[in-house]
What does this fold into?
Amino acid sequence: KAAYNKYLSDKRAKSTRAYIISQGIDPKRIESAIGYGEERLLNGCDGSIKCTSAQHQLNRRSEFIIVDM
It folds into this structure.
C-alpha cells in the first residue's frame, strides 16, 4: 500500500507539472516534481489511525516553492 501511495503521489506531481507547463510556464522554471507518498504528511493519517476522508485529502496535494519572482 505504501508503494502504491508513493506511485500515485508521484503521478500527481508529474501531472501538476505538466498542467502548469501547458498553461505557459517555462519548464526550466520548475526545479522538481516529486511525489512523496506518505513520507511528508500534514497530519498523522498514515493508515495507523482512523481518519476522515477530509483528513486524508489534506495529504493529497502539490506544493510549489517560489524561488524568484
Summary: The chain has a mean pLDDT of 88. The two ends are 39 Å apart (CA to CA).
